Amino acid sequence: MSFRRRIALLTGAAVAVSILLASTLAYVTVRGQLLGQVDSSLRGRASQFVSFVRRPLLPPPAAAVGVTGGTATPSLRAGGGSPGFGVARSRLFVRPPQRRGDIDFYDQFLTAAGTRATGPPGRGSDRLPVDGTARAIARRGAGAELRVARVGGTRVRLLTTGLPGGGAVQLGRPLKEVDTTLAHIRWLLLIVALGGIALAVVLGRIVAARAMRPLARLTETAEHVAATQDLGRRIEAPGGDEIGRLATSFNEMLDTLQVSMRALDASVHAQRQLIADASHELRTPVTSLRTNIEVLGANPDLSPELRATLVERATHQAEELTLLMNGLIDLARGEGPEGAPSTLSLDELVAGAVARARRHAPGQAFVVELEPTLVVGSHDRLARAVNNVLDNAVAWNAPGAPIAVTLAGGTLVVRDHGPGFAAGEVGQVLDRFFRGAGARDRAGSGLGLAIARQAVTAHGGAVTVANAPDGGAVVRFELAAAGVAAARVAAAREPEAAPGPAADLLRA
């Protein structure tokens, strides 16, 4: 069953329950009012009977009823000379007169013994049922009972009321009119309920169809994306309600997924490019190394000088392969920093890298100006990036010229006095395996600056290269300093501390 149909059915069921409850309440209310009117008329008529019984005894009218087993004897009223009708061992029950147009009631007298009184029968006499409650009321001569009884197949509302001095009168009123009215009302309420339920189902389907339009568009878009992998399609948000929020969230999910897919495609492309470049770069040293080893193995009678030359070449090629493999490993680690980041002193890290470069190139002069700087990141990865830049500067620097290393405000600048970058190569020197025209005859893998850029980018920084106006190359690292001012404060609070390499101004 579709969601739209379920909404329509649930709407119809809710309306049906509401209509049934309202109809039941209306029916019970009308029934109560109609029976209340009948009960009021019965009580009014019963009060007339009670008032007649309380009157002084007069000559009995034709409608007088006597008790079975007794005889009515004429007598004079006490205190008066008018003739009356006294009761020796019997009692007379007198029906009050009924006005023209009044409701025609069933009536019946009960003696104090709970039996029907004899005499001229009234309407419904000897037909109204007498139960134990009615007999008890007659014996007490007080109390009242209202109930529904059947007289000759007719439903009658029956009132039994006690009479002063003993006995009771039973009054009945047929409920035919009430039953007919209630039957009409039941049919009317049933028709209204069925019509209301049918209308509710129809309107529920219409409302559900309109409410389901945004969901239908959402479903269509999701199916389109699943079938075509087109992440550029979006859904128009209809408003700020739940469906609008769902559409907005779906669009945001598509945006995030599209960015992720682009990043994944770029990563896959980069990995493929890395594999292609690595296979190309590895082919030459591996081939050369294999050739030298085969020559050594195939010619055991080589002269010691030639054998030493081939071994030296093989060793150099193995070192090149080791350097290339280390670079590939660094690149394969991706853009994320290694390990948990920590706050480190960038100036001390750069000073250590300069000391390493001095050891590898004893004749190279360095001019170092380092400002105390704190950054958050991986010490090993940043150190590798700085080492690569310094090694590149040493490799290209002019003999006897100093290399300037400056750190200020989270920006590290390394400037050499070599030939600089060719005009068309400035935008490519940071790419993997790129080697300029002047580097073809030099050792190297073309990965040093690419590894440095990847490490700095992973720390939220940027690497730029340029040619100095008076010659030479300039490589600039820009990192987000975590505490330049904090480092200065710490240095000011420890004036007696031994000056470390971060505070050195080294000049050779």
Automatic annotation (TrEMBL):
UniProt entry keywords in alphabetical sequence:
Kinase, Membrane, Phosphoprotein, Transferase, Transmembrane, Transmembrane helix, Two-component regulatory system
Catalytic activity as recorded in UniProt: ATP + protein L-histidine = ADP + protein N-phospho-L-histidine
**InterPro entries assigned to the protein according to its UniProt record, in alphabetical order:** HAMP_dom, HATPase_C_sf, HATPase_dom, His_kinase_dom, HisK_dim/P_dom, HisK_dim/P_sf, Sig_transdc_His_kin-like_C, TCS_sensor_his_kinase
Q: What class of enzyme is it?
A: transferase
Membrane found in the keyword field: yes
Domain HAMP residues, every copy: 209-262
Q: Could you tell me which SMART domains the record lists for this protein?
A: HAMP, HATPase_c, HisKA
EC number(s): the record gives 2.7.13.3
> Residues in domain Histidine kinase?
277-483
Does the keyword Transport belong to this entry?
Answer: no
The Gene Ontology terms for molecular function here are: kinase activity
Q: Where in the cell is it found?
A: Cell membrane
Chief subcellular site? membrane
* Pfam families per record: HAMP, HATPase_c, HisKA
Segments spanning the bilayer are 187-208
Out of the domains of life, which is the source?
A: Bacteria
Name by which UniProt lists this protein: histidine kinase
User: Which species is this UniProt entry from?
Assistant: Paraconexibacter antarcticus
